[in-house]
Amino acid sequence: MEKKPNVCMQDVQVRKGPWTMEEDLILINYIADHGEGVWNSLARSAGLKRTGKSCRLRWLNYLRPDVRRGNITPEEQLLIIELHAKWGNRWSKIAKHLPGRTDNEIKNYWRTRIQKHVKQTDNVSGQTSSRRNSQTDMIPSQTCNVASQMEFSYHPPCDNIMNFPGPFATETNENVWSMDELWPLQLLHNV
DNA sequence: AATCAATTCAACCGCCTCGTG
DNA sequence: ACACGAGGCGGTTGAATTGAT
Fold it and tell me: How much is the pTM?
């Protein structure tokens, strides 16, 4: 048995950054056997050199079998706008009303697609309107206004925000693999 | 074909809340 | 009532990808 320095041993062992396929499989298998929850001990027991938080995030945002990815529909988009107008940046609350969508995904979608459109709209229609300190401090009343603007000016074919990058298949990305690939492996592993 | 800029999104960070002893 | 740990949430970052020149 080699002796390791007892200083920050956990810190030394914690892995960060993109998940590997192997790690994903370990996590899927472990949760299939034991269920989710108690993430810190789950991470340890599963032999993953990740924090509990990291495992939870990976599972909730990516590995859960019911996670839907890509192709946010116009209906979903309108719902996001509507709910954001009602609740502001309460992403998890909004996500509960969009089955299969995660708070992270909705948050990203809002920031990259909708907020961009909001800014453009602001520039065109209200150049003298109030300044914002940041992208994130928009209050619900403002977004409500924006939501109505978007609904009435919604023209998918030429609208920037409706140009979805396409389905989930980004094969070139090393740590992105489809659930079609992962779940059969998980099942095989469990047999 | 090469380079640069813009965009996207997975993952991390820090704060807050809640449950438990 | 208090302290502590774990989980949850929103904000932010940075690598990868895509598009434009």
Answer: 0.70
Name the H helices within A19-134. Answer: 21-34, 39-46, 52-58, 74-87, 91-96, 103-109, 115-125
A162 strand B contact, CB < 7 Å = no
Walking along chain A (191 residues) 10 residues at a time, the average pLDDT comes out as 36 78 91 86 90 91 84 85 86 88 89 72 49 36 44 35 34 50 56 42
Cβ-based burial of A161 (10 A; exposed 0-12, middle 13-18, buried ≥19): buried
The nucleotide lying nearest A95 (C-alpha to C1') is C9
Show the domains of chain A with their CATH numbers: 9-67+170-185 (1.10.10.60), 74-162 (no CATH)
